Amino acid sequence: MLVGNIATVVLVSLGAVFFLAGTVGLLRFPDSMTRLHALTKADNLGLGLVVLGLLPQVDSVLAALKLVAVWVLTQLAGATVTQLVARAVWRGGGS
Amino acid sequence: MSLALLADAALVLLVLGLAFWINAASRAFPAVVGYVAFGLLLALAWLRLSAGDVAMTEAAVGSGVTGAVLIAASVRLRSAETEAPPPALPLRLLALLLSGLVTAALAGLVLWTTGPAPSLADQAVQHLPGLGMGNAVTGVLIAYRALDTLLEKVVLLLALMGIWSLAKDRYWGGIPGPSRIQPTNGALILLARLLPPIGIVVAVYILWVGATDPGGAFQGGAILAAMWLLVMLAGLRDAPAISRPWVRLCVTVGPAAFIAVGLTGFALPNGFLSYPDSIAKPLIIAVESVLTLSIAVILGLLVAGPPERQP
Amino acid sequence: MIWLAATLLLPLAMLFACLSQTLRYRMSNWLSVAAVPGLGAALFAPEASLDLPPFLLRLRLSLDLPSAILLGVAALLWIAAGVYAAAWLRDDPRRGRIAEWWLLTLTGSLGVFMAADLVSFYLLFSMVSLAAYGLIIEGRAADAQKVGLIYVALAVFGEALLLMAFVMLAQSGSASGPGDGLLIRDAVAALAVSPWRNAILALIIGGFGVKLGMVPFHVWMPITYRTAPIPAAAALSGAAVKAGAIGLLRFLPLGLALPDWGNVLTTLGFISAFYAVLIGVTQTNPRMVLAFSSISQMGVIAAVFGMGLGAPNADLALIVAFYAAHHTLVKGGLFLGVGLAPLSGPRRTWLVLVPAAIMGLGLAGLPLTGGALAKLAIKPVLGDGWAGTLGILSSLATALLMTHFLFRLAALPEAVAPNALHGRLRWSWLMIAAASVVVPWALYLMVMSGSVAYALSPASLWASLWPVVVGATLAAGLRPWGSRLPRVPDGDIVMLVAARVARVAGRTAAALEWLDGALRQWPVAVLSLLAISAILAALMLVRV
Amino acid sequence: MTPATLYGLCSAVLVGAGLYGALVNPQPLRKILALNLLGSGTFLLFGVIARRGAAAGLGGDPVPQAMVITGIVVAFSATALAVALLLRVYQETGRTTLEQPAPKDVV
Amino acid sequence: MIAPAALLVLAIILPAAGVVLALAAGGRGAERVAMAVIAGGAAIALAIAGTLWSTGAPLSYIIGGWAPPLGIALRADGLSAFMLLTSALVIGAIGLFARATYVQPAGTPERRAPLVFWIMLMGVWTGLNAVWLAGDLFSLYVALELLTFSAVPLVSLEGKPETLAAALRYMLFALIGSILYLLGCALLYGGYGTLDIVLLSRLARPEPVVFVALALMTAGLAAKTALFPLHLWLPPAHAGAPAAASALLSALVVKGSFILMVRLWFDSLPGIAGDGAAQFMAALGSAAIIVGSVLALRQERLKLMIAYSTVAQIGYLFFLFPLAGAAGDWERLAWTGGIMQLVAHAVAKAAMFMAAGLIGEALGHDRIAGFAGLGRALPVVMFAFGLAGMSLMGLPPSGGFVAKAMLLTASIGEGQWWWAVVIMIGGLLAAGYMFRVLTPALAGGAAPVILAARISRPRQAIVLGLAICALLLGLMPLRPSALLEVGRTTQAAEVR
């Protein structure tokens, strides 16, 4: 079980780092499009890592599948939303 | 334990920060976006208070559907932003003083009341097996305080009728929403085709699991409504005309079933809104599923608004 | 017993009949019939009493001798005025509505003499005062509505005072618990012991003072009698105003000796008596002069009540009832005369002026008339002190005022009217004139057990003659200077006070309107919501 | 300082913020938002009380939690009705202020 | 026949089922369902009141067999019986009155106004019956919301711009009120673990959590009752609403939250509020009477005048708190007087608003200045208006007189004479604004009044019938009513 715990700690902290990078990107980048880019990339990857990290802690397969489902759904929603916001920004200009 | 407390403190600060942002934002749209985020964070807070059912309801309805309504409204009201000046300074100071007084009173009471808080938890849990239920909150909603839930459904119906009554006479019986949304946005169409099937499965699962774990009729209904709204927003299907018989039927079947089952209770020893011991669970699940259907349609139509186009 | 019920039921039945349009238009011809049962009750059932069934508020109607006299005389006047009205309103388009208000006022006016318990008294009293309002706004005068509003404002104010007094009376009457349908007799009996005795007495004098037109509250009487149609004015000034008299008669604790309250009432009475004459003399419209004479006579009645309060006198009630009865007939008759004078053409002097003179000077105590008997009756009550002399002076003043009235009556311009009208008018005028002499004599002999010898003895004849002679000569002498007297505006005090009160009321109303506007702004409303919760919490915490 | 007390204070502040927002903000839409804040604060107070009443193996007393769910439903339908009313007022008058026209010139 | 206790459930569930059925049936079906519900509801109200009158004991019904504190109990005492009867009478009259305006002609496509009106009428009735009968404070919250959600669409039924704004203002202010009430419920539950009225009355002690809770709940309910400083929404809402709706709002909807306040102060937390708070409430009531009446005097439009008269007449109800607190004879008289004032005002105000509606229809406007000679044009309507006015003024033999006489006697009996003075002033001012309308109407105007529309006889008969009911209430003896005391002595006896 030790290996599982170590893997969890490593992967989850790696995920946290990616989230941090995403947030820094959000604050530093000049305009919305680049901010969007930073956000989606970092957060999706970060979430993936966190999910991977939690897999060993999970007791049943069903729970594991639920975690993966969460990740997939977030990916789907994230992608669509980014498309919409980008389209709005592209057409509307402004913030 | 202090680490968990630290996390809670961070969450509380974030929630309060968003609350002040909502009040302070210069324009309505950013405030509404802030409110949606506030709602989701509040759902986390409910989880910390170990109230799973409430967290789901808050996320689905408190921030989700309410957010949809408010965002749509803030966009339509964008041009009417700048008229009224805020009230004069003395009024604002007095407002600050009095709301601060209320906050202080509540905070004082929260801090001051020590000792074991009286609770109905054990009574609720003790009678659950009789109903064949595992989730105490659903037990309270469907059995112990069933009258409140019944009246709440009537409230939903009246709210829907209230919104429909705001239609102009010539549009009565027509289709809600200012104009038919054209399916042009590729990404949204993809989502609207992919997500609903999953959403329906999740909704049914939540309805079913509500008997034993957090979930239940309302949360399931809210997810179904969200899926229906997604399809409508993507333009794949137009909102139904309110004079359609199936709309009237779906809207009224839930409360009607609940009242009917309640009335059958008169034949039982425990009277109105009591369930026969032998078939308590299946009966409750049946009632809940019909309620879910009704709630989904009602919530969808509440968001769609009053009819503004000819049928 | 059935007479009492009939007195109320007949007019109400006729009122109900007015619902049908056809009957409504012909009702004005039958107005005189409505008062007949009242006369019957007074004549045939003076001691009767009637308890209404419990579901009807457990009311009780009962008559005793003084109220029977007042009822009989009032009914007589209502009959005469009814006959007069039948002719007077024959082609008036509004006679339907006037008939309705007439019947309502009649019911109240006759009923108030019979009421024996608090609730029915208040019910009938408010009926007579509010229904009279209807008669006023039907008057032809331009400002009928304004006069109506002034009248109803004061009437409702008087009633509010009375309601408060009755509530306190009911309280002290049943100190144990809240009883209901309390009899006036028991309530007044318990007045001696009640902690709010002075408050109750003040309210009663105030409430009935408004109805009797005592000085500060008299303002409504002159303008009302000037505005109401003649028959209505006659009935109001004669019979309806006596509701105040019966009120004082029933509610003042005449058994108790209350010298201080007695003096207050007497002084108020005499102030009204003399003030009214002062203003009356300056009036040109004969109806206004008559109205001021009513105020003066009611002042005398109040003074007599005051003396009665001071020194308890067994048959005070009877004396006052007799005096008031005479005044009812004379005042009502004179108003009818004022209506008839312009229409009687050449025969005016004999047909109208002579009987009017007899009745008018009779008020001042002309020997051989009912008035002399009335003055004789109240002499022992007023006694010989300052009250007695003031009594004689008031007779003199009344003589002065009445002579002035006769001059104004003679000066009325001729009016043309179809002669078919005259028959009924003349008949009812002569009937009331005769009654104003015959009825007091009949009452004096049979009821007051007075001796004819005493009445006709030279001493009493002279005692009642000289004030009349002096008053008349004074009025005749003053006539040339009459035109230089100051022109007092119509409502005298009310005009002076009304302007200022209206301005103050307008300002406060505007201030309240601004306050309401301010409070209904959204932020202020929510602030007051939070303020109320804070204050409530504080009040509860502080109490601990 | 248990978590429940912390959220209790958070609910108190939310109630204060909600009241202040409803009072000061002239825009009706912002008032509706503030009222939702006020509602969330009140429901959070219910949640805190439920958490304190945790017993019999449950994380919190189910009765107040059920009340909160009913409350959220009612609050949402109120928001939906208020927003629909506001949109219709805007459609009819082109303005959205709640200013009170002096009673004289009402219709 | 159904067990009397079960009637309590039917009283709430019948109109609720009516709402659901009417929405499902739609069109003409809605009116038929509503008529059936009116008949059924009246029968139920009479049956409950009859049982209470004969047995003299309060009724109670445990929902689903779950006894409080876990479950909810419905309770009917004397006060509930009075209110059930009043609601049945007034809603019945309004229903019959409104059949002419909200008719769905056969064969035509479904119209908006009729369907909405009948559904909202039954929604209001559900809310009202739940307020009269529910024994749990949270169920009462849901009942209040039911009331508000059916009242707001009634205000904006005609869709005129200012009625929409009035409805929005009413909605938002009522929302604040109900959330403050909910806050109070949370505190009470936190303190005592139950929200049942009877259990709370046994557990509650004078301590800060109860004070803050009671203060917040009272303020919230005062906002929904439009007590004086919080009446911003009432005049435009009640004046703008259609005749039948404004009659319903002024007569009953406003009273729902007041009765809840009475339940709190007298049944659920007896003797906790203390005299200072009770005097403060009555002081606000007095301010309501004075300012409301003066404002009513200054209005040019009839319906606004009647709306302000509602603000004033509501003030009288708040004399209940200082006068009917303890358990003495005068207190019982004040209790009967206060409830009689509520019932008399409900019946009289409903008749008056309907009469005003008919006048508005007939003349085409409701400016008081243009009422000269109306008495001849609409005799029956003006007569009914006058009778209702008599009850508002408190002239005998009307219900208003009985109520005011009882309140006067009680206030003098208990030595708080200042309330008596305010009642007097209120009566005078009421006479002022009533005669301001009656005088031009009764005095014959010069020009004959030309009517824009003919008013059908049955509608005039309904208005007259209701006004006569307000008069018949005056036949009640000036003694504490036995029915009103049913089920009350127990709480009062336990006063600490």
Short summary:
The complex is a heteropentamer of chains A (95), B (311), C (544), D (107) and E (496). Chain A is mainly alpha-helical and 95 residues long.
Provide an overview of this structure.
The complex is a heteropentamer of chains A (95), B (311), C (544), D (107) and E (496). With 95 residues, chain A is mainly alpha-helical. Chain A has three helices and no strands. In chain A, helix 1 packs antiparallel against helix 2 and helix 2 runs antiparallel to helix 3. Chain A is elongated, with a radius of gyration of 16 Å. The mean pLDDT of chain A is 84. Chain B is mostly helical. Chain B contains eleven helices and two strands. A two-stranded antiparallel ribbon of chain B has the order 1-2. In chain B, helix 1 runs antiparallel to helix 2 and helix 8 packs antiparallel against helix 9. Chain D has one domain: Helix Hairpins. The N and C termini of chain D lie far apart (57 Å). Chains B and D meet through helix 1, helix 2, helix 3, helix 4 and helix 5 of B and helix 1, helix 2 and helix 3 of D.
Give the key terms.
heteropentamer, A: 95 residues, mainly alpha, 3 helices, elongated, C: 544 residues, 3 domains, two-stranded antiparallel ribbon, 23 helices, 2 strands, globular
- Distance N terminus to C terminus of chain B? 60 Å
* Helix and strand composition category of chain B: mainly alpha
Average pLDDT across residues of chain B? 89
The biggest sheet of chain A, with number of strands, parallel, antiparallel or mixed sense and barrel status, is: none
Number of distinct helices of chain A:
3
Q: Which two chains form the greatest contact, residue counts included?
A: B-D, 92 and 81 residues
Topology:
The complex is a heteropentamer of chains A (about 100), B (about 300), C (about 550), D (about 110) and E (about 500).
Chain A: H1 2-28, H2 32-54, H3 61-92
Helix pairs in contact in A: 1-2, 2-3
Chain B: H1 2-24, H2 28-48, H3 52-76, H4 89-112, H5 121-131, H6 136-144, H7 146-164, E1 175-176, H8 186-209, H9 217-234, H10 245-264, H11 280-304, E2 307-309
Antiparallel strand pairs in B: 1-2
Helix pairs in contact in B: 1-2, 2-3, 3-9, 5-6, 6-7, 7-10, 7-11, 8-9, 9-11, 10-11
Chain D: H1 3-24, H2 28-52, H3 62-93
Helix pairs in contact in D: 1-2, 2-3
